Amino acid sequence: MCVKFQTNAIANSRDTELGRSKLRKSKEEATMRLFYYVLLGIFYTSPAGAARRQQANGTWIIPDRINELKMRYLYSFFNLQTDGADSGRHDAERPGPAPCKALPGLSPGQGRLCQLYKDHMNAVALGAKQALGECKHQFHNRRWNCSILDDVNVFGPVITIGKFSSQSELFVLPAKVAQELIPLLQSFLIPARMFGYNPWIYFINAGIAASRESAFAHALAAAGVAHSVSRSCRDGQLSSCGCSRMGRPKELKKEWVWGGCGDNLEYGYKFTQNFVDVREKERKFKRGTREQGRVLMNLHNNEAGRRAVIKQSKVTCKCHGVSGSCSLITCWQQLANFREIGDYLRDKYDGATEVRVNRRGRLQLRDPQVSIPTVYDLVYLEESPNYCVRDSVVGSLGTQGRPCNRTSPDVDGCHLLCCGRGYNTVRSTLRERCHCRFKWCCQVECKTCIRSVDVHTCK
Amino acid sequence: MPGTILENLSGRKLSVLVVILLSAQLACFLIGLLSPSPATSQGILSTVCVDDNPDADNINRWFTKQCKEIHLNQEKATVGLDAKNLVFVVQMPRHDILDFSRWQQNLVGVLQIDVVYQVEQKLDPIIELTLDARLAYSDKTSTGGRTPWQYYAHAEEKRYMDCSFEDTTIKDKNGYPYNCSMVPLFELGAISHDYYLLNLRLPYNYTVQKNTGLGRIEDVYLHVIHMNGGFTKIWISLKTFFFPIIIAIMVWFWNRVHILNRTPALLEYMLMGLGGTLAFLNLPVEYLTLIFDMPYMLLLSDIRQGIFYAMLLSFWLVFAGEHMLIQDNGERNTLKMYWKHLSTIVIGCLCLLIFDLCERGVQLLNPFYSIWVTPIGTNLALSFIILAGISASLYFIFLCYMIWRVFKNMSIKRSILPSMSQARRLHYEGIIYRFNFLMLVTVVCAALTVVSFILSQVAEGQNKWDENMDLELTSALHTGVYGMWNVYICAMLILYAPSHKQWSADPICAEGEEVEFSRLPTEASPNEISSLTSFASKASIE
């Protein structure tokens, strides 16, 4: 297998092994309870609490739904804002760089990059979050509603769980949350434990199919990070952005006066190239194996995602020559709104190409009739599951309980979305804002409209 | 009898000269490859600050990045705020560790305002913006700190922004961006301070229609463009290199003319004038900007370039006119003869000068000023530019007509050539050949200028995504063209300087194919610069 692959991770799993053997002496249920306490503890933890858990080791995967919780943990840790959780950061401070050891799920290579570019990590995390939000937006009315993003999350699906020094850090859980979490924990953690090795590898290689959705998610995550890094570049948050070589701050000024700083989009692209791809590149597999194919697929889709950011950017020019003529002209790339990038990648998702890995360890078209995918196109190795029923192995949550559109013949229509199982209809009254008038800066004058609608949900 | 060096230079010497000039030209181009691109832009995301006391009447109240910050995409954060509470803050340069250098010459600021779609909101395709912009500066102190922000400029300006919403197929348009044009904000002719700070407000006032058409703004970026220090260095060194050379050549040229004991010909005056304007253009006054605050540098360099181009265009006219191969009378040609043609140049240049004074002259007082925002200003600017365009086209019609006549005359005279003696014929053929060669050089230079202009536009405008693009083509094109006109004018001055070979000796029949001049004594008028013209009159006598 991958001998060199993440000595940390192996050490971690060894630790877990140790911890596990201790725990095995007690009852099996106690193990479960600990994990679930810990996960919920993370969810309900304050930044201060998170900081104390830096020494945590031991590696576990977490299931899809928990990912959001994890992201929250991450953001609270970074002192970043989650959706409306703490609106309006009125304090003057900007979030300080996050200590890399505390970041869960970084691969060894990423860990090293994190050490080098500490101030970039906020942007990376924001990018991952942005990608997740965009994915949910793009797929909110499809069978797969972006329920799996762990695998492509740049931090990986791994969360660190610590050996707690004192019981005081465990929290008493509200029963409702516990109810929601237990089935998830059972479905995801137990299969992982059954494999004796690093659960993450299990997760990546067997857990989620190398499907179209995975391709999209990889591309979107890479795009999210590239976009976010480029953007924070413009914010002046990244000390070295665009002015190349980090290690020579003394010459930075000289370099800047001589040739200015490079384009921040290019910087975002290059940083993401290093940061996201390193995790694929540090794993070595035998040529032509499925795992190697998966690595190639991920690399290709990551590149497609980054390119999407560039492709969607607009080139804008300004003439500033003699009398404002165009004898001197300067152009720059204007970062696109992430929504546009998401739209573009969704189109690419619809037109993704199925490939397979050949014996020489290269990707090859499965159907020679179709045209060869470019760097901008997405590729996948396996057909997607239909996502109709819940299947933790392929990472499908099923469509049960999902709202659908009765009249639409499209994927969001009840017939397709519910996979022919039929739907329930409930009549409900909606109060919404309508006839809005916007007044710069901060007022939206709206009327409230009340309408009654039928809400259909899949059986 | 004065001939020019061009006619009397042997083929070998001429080729040596051409090789020297061409290698100088090549060197200019190669130097450009070493330098970075002429200018860089830096996109800076503005920080949105809350001004709790918007009515305070203190011009030196500055908001920096360390302020009470909010994010416009969070509706909750902006509740209860008014347009005058929001201040968009941009600190230049982007990174705190960097500061501006005087080598970066000038600063141009362009605003990018990201407007997103709101439910059921209709935006006009052209939005009128009212910008309350304030600029402050700060300098490094010797102890490593910074001086407090000092007032630099303040203005409330109007701008227009075109916004379009392209994709109508999207179902859920909320949050989709409008495609809005850039808004030019300011131009600073000199970077004399280390740091600049922009505080921008977008006041709302329904009664006077301020910013009433504005939609939901998500982000405001400021793109600042400055010259690159590296390019400035190379540019100034080019100027410093060419300036003494052109002066030396001018001195030498004028000496030559004075040795002749005759009044200089018109073309010689024109050549001197051309050399003078080039020397003026080459004069490296940019060195002074490194010491003094010279915000009028932009205007000055515009004027310098304008004078040079006006002189070059007039020179071409006179050059073609003086080689008409027709000597109607023995009278000395003066500029008065060309008044029709030259007036087109004068009018065109004056128009551009007035336009430039209106735009860049006013910008000396108010860096946020733009002539294009008021309808009167736009009309005025447009009419000046159109007038300049008309005179430019008139000029080119004149010039083309004259060149056409020169070539027609030449072909007529050429038909008489076979009836001449062989030595003389060879010589005259050589003159025509060299004249044509120089005409060709002019055309090639002009064509190269146009081509490099287009190339530099393309090179800049294309989506720069080539990882191994280390060479900078744009600046190479700039230095190449600049060097080319220097070389061209040097060549003109050298080749059209009076030759000393013949003015002492009487025509002697040389042996073999060696060319000699046997001129008819009657038409030895001292005002002819080129024996080509004397050839023309002689041929007509023959």
From TrEMBL, chain A:
Subcellular location(s) per record: Secreted, Extracellular space, Extracellular matrix
Keywords: Developmental protein, Disulfide bond, Extracellular matrix, Glycoprotein, Lipoprotein, Membrane, Secreted, Transmembrane, Transmembrane helix, Wnt signaling pathway
GO term, biological process aspect, one: neuron differentiation
Main localization (coarse): secreted
Annotated transmembrane regions: 34-51
SMART domains (alphabetical): WNT1
Official protein name in the record: Protein Wnt
Automatic annotation (TrEMBL), chain B:
One annotated Gene Ontology cellular component of this protein: endoplasmic reticulum membrane
Compartments (UniProt record): Endoplasmic reticulum membrane; Endosome membrane; Golgi apparatus membrane; Postsynaptic cell membrane
Keyword Transmembrane helix in annotation: yes
TM annotation in the entry: 234-254, 266-287, 307-326, 338-355, 380-404, 431-455, 475-497
Similarity-based family: Belongs to the wntless family.
Record GO terms (molecular function): Wnt-protein binding
Upper taxonomic lineage: Eukaryota, Metazoa, Ecdysozoa, Arthropoda, Hexapoda
Name recorded for this polypeptide: Protein wntless
The Wntless-like transmembrane domain, residue ranges: 228-500
Origin species: Exocentrus adspersus
Keyword list, A-Z: Cell projection, Developmental protein, Endosome, Golgi apparatus, Membrane, Postsynaptic cell membrane, Segmentation polarity protein, Synapse, Transmembrane, Transmembrane helix, Wnt signaling pathway
Domain Wntless GOLD: start-end pairs: 48-226
Role summary: A segment polarity gene required for wingless (wg)-dependent patterning processes, acting in both wg-sending cells and wg-target cells. In non-neuronal cells wls directs wg secretion. The wls traffic loop encompasses the Golgi, the cell surface, an endocytic compartment and a retrograde route leading back to the Golgi, and involves clathrin-mediated endocytosis and the retromer complex (a conserved protein complex consisting of Vps35 and Vps26). In neuronal cells (the larval motorneuron NMJ), the wg signal moves across the synapse via the release of wls-containing exosome-like vesicles.
